[in-house]
Amino acid sequence: MTPNRTTGRRGTRPAAPTAVLALLAVVLIGGTAAAVVWRVAGGHWFSVDTPSMGVAAPVGTLVLTRPTRIADLAVGDIVSFTPDDGGTVHTHRVIRIEGGVARTRGDINGAEDPWQVRDANLVGVVVARWWGMAWLVKALPILLFGGALVWLLTRYAGANWRAPLRLVLYPLVVCVAVVWLRPLVGVTLLGTFGENGLTRATVVSTGLLPIRASTPDGVSADLRGGQVAELVSTAVDGQGRLPISVGAHMSWPWWVVCLALCAAPLLASLFVRPRETA
Question: Model pTM?
Answer without folding.
Answer: 0.83
